[in-house]
Amino acid sequence: MTTDALWYLARGSGVVSLILFTVVVALGIGTRSGRAFAGLNRLVVASVHRSAALLALVFLTIHVVTLMFDPYAQLSLVDVLLPFGSGYRPFWVGLGTLALDLALAVTVTSLLRDRIGAKAWRAVHWLAYAMWPIAVVHGIGSGTDRDTVWMLALDAVCVISVVGVAVSTHPALRRPAKTLRTA
């Protein structure tokens, strides 16, 4: 595979990962609200959430592996697993590594949910709310398209989507149940 092909594959898979993880986080927030979300019942939303998470992990794996073979980035396995040690943009790549580590923790505990229990799973699953913004900032700082209008717009849409879902499903904003007047 040529260097250009690796570069395009790494960029594209990173962008697709961002979009899919945005969907995953938005659906996770929507499911957590305990109400129907986007006109779908909770079971459908949870199923799409899990499927999108698996697909996001596939694209994240492609993103990371292609960067390990890219002669420009020259990331090693250590760079991919231990944050902030990369020779290539150490801070920004370190954020990506941190996001990857958090995603792996959420994934592993999700696979072991029946064995570790719901309480432990839920405690680790909250890391997804840290992973996503770290990944967004990683892309903004290290992405080669970070200064392009289309990428800035995509970042904005992702952030607005997650914040919008979080605000719209916040318990304080729920309409109170209608009560019958008795007079």
Automatic annotation (TrEMBL):
Residue ranges of every copy of the Ferric oxidoreductase domain listed in the record: 13-135
Membrane topology: Multi-pass membrane protein
Spans through the membrane: 6-30, 51-69, 89-112, 124-143, 149-173
UniProtKB keywords: Membrane, Transmembrane, Transmembrane helix
Pfam families referenced in this protein's UniProt entry, alphabetically: Ferric_reduct (PF01794)
InterPro entries found in the cross-reference section: Fe3_Rdtase_TM_dom (IPR013130)
Main location: membrane
Subcellular location: Membrane
Coiled coil, from the record: none
Name of the protein in question: Sulfoxide reductase heme-binding subunit YedZ
Organism the protein comes from: Kineosporia succinea
UniProt lineage: Bacteria, Bacillati, Actinomycetota, Actinomycetes, Kineosporiales
